[in-house]
């Protein structure tokens, strides 16, 4: 299994901005296979929708660094690891802007970008982005269409209901051809159908520390996605997944490692990463924890 970790982006770790590059270099040195970012725009004081079904948001969302800047840093100070996003809230960004940023990162990394997209859940973030939340699904679909055009055609042009890219010279393309692989976060039926119809893979999540590991939480939805992909005329075997392991603050190294090992053995996961914002408050501690997780999971 390929095992990665999130970069120091959120919460207490975000305050150690000067150590982002060191974390990326050291994580690669100790054997990490990928480095990841998320995408939070606000930490609403009075959220109208809470996180993961709660009525609040995590304190870690009070301090968040820009995902594109962190991916660029990781791309330039490493040589081997994949540089991923789980997830970028694509409806917030004009496709031409998103394509420029992601193409830059893919080229800086020599073709190691692994972009994951989603739609987010916070009405306040959509208000701040100036995008109607009710249009998020349609805007994501159009964004994926426009990225496909911008990454494959020259000149490139896109006309949609929500996004428009006038005919433009598009000489600069990602290193990865025909484009970087696109993964999607999805839980609702319409979103799962989108994964099946047009993504290269799915981004599931498990949470060590909240109860026993249940492989069916991964295998059942993935089986459904592959069935839908087959019905859409795609080869279901071509769809992959990258598992986000999101431990609670009280989860032990053994619990995190067990989730990784069981996900590989019982759910067929071949790439996973550990979210660090709940389990470390400074970069040295995050690196120590990452090394212990790698040693334990690979023992």
From TrEMBL:
Residues 16-276 form the Luciferase-like domain. It holds the Pfam family Bac_luciferase. It comes from the Bacteria. Gene3D superfamilies: Luciferase-like domain. Keywords: Flavoprotein, FMN, Monooxygenase, Oxidoreductase. One of its GO terms (molecular function) is alkanesulfonate monooxygenase activity. The keyword Ribosomal protein does not apply. The keyword Flavoprotein applies. InterPro entries: Lucif-like_OxRdtase_Rv2161c, Luciferase-like_dom, Luciferase-like_sf, SsuD_RutA_monooxygenase. GO terms for biological process: alkanesulfonate catabolic process. PANTHER family: ALKANESULFONATE MONOOXYGENASE, ALKANESULFONATE MONOOXYGENASE-RELATED. This is Putative F420-dependent oxidoreductase. It comes from Haloactinospora alba. The lineage of its organism: Bacteria, Bacillati, Actinomycetota, Actinomycetes, Streptosporangiales.
């Amino acid at each position: 299994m390929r095992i990665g970790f999130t970069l120091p982006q959120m919460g207490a770790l975000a305050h150690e901005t000067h150590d982002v590059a060191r974390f990326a270099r050291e994580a690669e040195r100790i054997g990490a296979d990928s480095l990841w970012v998320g995408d939070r725009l606000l930490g609403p004081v009075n959220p109208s929708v809470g996180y993961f079904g709660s009525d609040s948001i995590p304190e870690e969302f009070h301090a968040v660094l820009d995902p594109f800047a962190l991916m660029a840093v990781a791309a330039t100070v490493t040589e081997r690891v994949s540089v991923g996003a789980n997830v970028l809230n694509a409806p917030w960004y004009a496709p031409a802007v998103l394509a420029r940023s992601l193409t830059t990162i893919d080229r800086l990394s020599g073709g190691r970008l692994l972009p994951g997209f989603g739609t987010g859940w916070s009405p306040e973030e959509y208000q701040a982005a100036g995008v109607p939340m009710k249009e998020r699904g349609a805007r994501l679909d159009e964004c994926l269409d426009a990225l496909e055009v911008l990454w494959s055609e020259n000149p490139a042009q896109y006309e949609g209901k929500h996004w428009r890219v006038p005919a433009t010279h598009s000489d600069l393309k990602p290193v990865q051809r025909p484009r970087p692989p696109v993964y999607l976060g999805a839980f609702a039926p319409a979103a799962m159908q989108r994964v099946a119809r047009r993504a290269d893979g799915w981004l599931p999540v498990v949470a060590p520390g909240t109860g026993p590991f249940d492989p069916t939480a991964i295998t059942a939805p993935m089986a459904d996605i592959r069935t839908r992909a087959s019905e859409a005329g795609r080869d279901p075997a071509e769809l992959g997944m990258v598992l986000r392991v999101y431990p609670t603050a009280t989860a032990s190294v053994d619990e995190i490692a067990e989730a990784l090992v069981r996900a590989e053995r019982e759910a067929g996961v071949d790439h996973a990463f550990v979210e660090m914002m709940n389990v470390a408050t400074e970069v040295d501690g995050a690196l120590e924890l990452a090394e212990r997780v790698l040693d334990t999971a690979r023992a």
